[in-house]
Sequence to fold (321 residues):
Amino acid sequence: MDELLNIKDLRVKITDGGSEFYAVDGIDFRIPYGGTHALVGESGCGKSITAYSVMGLLPDVASVDSGSIHFRGDDLTKLSGRELERIRGKSIGMIFQEPLASLDPVFTIYSQISEAITLHEKAGGAQLKERVTALLKKVHIPDAKQRLESYPHQLSGGMRQRVMIATAISLKPALLIADEPTTALDVTIQLQILKLLKELKDEMGMGLFLITHDLGVVSYTCEQVSVMYAGRIVESCATKELFASPMHPYTKALLKSIPKGKGGGKKIAAIKGMVPSPEHMPKGCRFAPRCELADKKCEEAQPVLAKVSTGHYVACIRPWQ
Ligand SMILES: Nc1ncnc2c1ncn2[C@@H]1O[C@H](COP(=O)(O)OP(=O)(O)O)[C@@H](O)[C@H]1O
Ligand code: SF4
Ligand SMILES: [Mg+2]
Fold:
């Protein structure tokens, strides 16, 4: 049977001024119908570019160079702009880090959500109003009816993200893509939004593609997780397995940097060094300059993602150390 989302060997090239590089360099990523899969990694690893490829919203400098993105059986990389528009916002809902940037300050909450609906469906009048009110209730916005006439700046960050979620789910999408949905929010609000996403996902049976730099967010929401580093996936398995037996040195470092304690707290150990820039991409393992286990052998060739146990894949030449 077709999967909800099946990304195969995707390469996305960025041509920026004189430089040309692959922001996404041959990744595989799958979500079954109703499944949840997170893509996690530090800033600049290619997570958003992966999501934009699925949504057909790549910036001008970027283009899909090779590979495929099948959504419910159709290869999205082969569809026209118009066909993608029909899917985006209807079958694939999206939410981003900063809800204020996605909301128009001069329009009321009602007009923004209703527009998302009428873009794809004929609807109007009292019925549409009721439908939007029900959506606000579904994302637990108090005084839903009164809130219809509010403007984005009259809402808190958490409430604005709820409005974005209401918009994203308004047409019952089969897949929700959430790119750093809680990064801009306070820790207590983060948890509420994650709870909401989980609740909606369970209730509506939609798939969830979650993007985050924070593994703590993953443990709460996703069954599967793939760790991305410098354009490639370096580890992929069930979330429980990742926390119980992480294998890639990068994953282990990410796990150590999860904020501990109630209310988040401080990062206990940030990972030393930085994600390599495209001009200084190591020839062998891309994590080698930051890896404590690195030696000459690691610099010879790029490790490929290989199976270490059932459903657990790692791209490292010595995953058991
Ligand atoms: N609009 C753009 N112009 C030039 N480079 C970009 C653009 N968007 C992303 N990139 C580059 O692509 C790489 C991956 O970026 P991105 O997918 O945004 O990372 P992440 O979401 O993991 O933080 C980075 O090297 C980034 O600098
Ligand atoms: S291949 Fe070598 S450098 Fe890369 S993660 Fe594994 S041990 Fe570290
Ligand atoms: Mg991003």
User: Anything to note?
Assistant: Residues 187-204 form the longest helix (18 residues). Residues 101-170 form one domain. The pocket of adenosine-5'-diphosphate (ligand 1) is lined by residues 14, 16, 23, 41, 43-49, 59, 61 (CB under 6 Å).
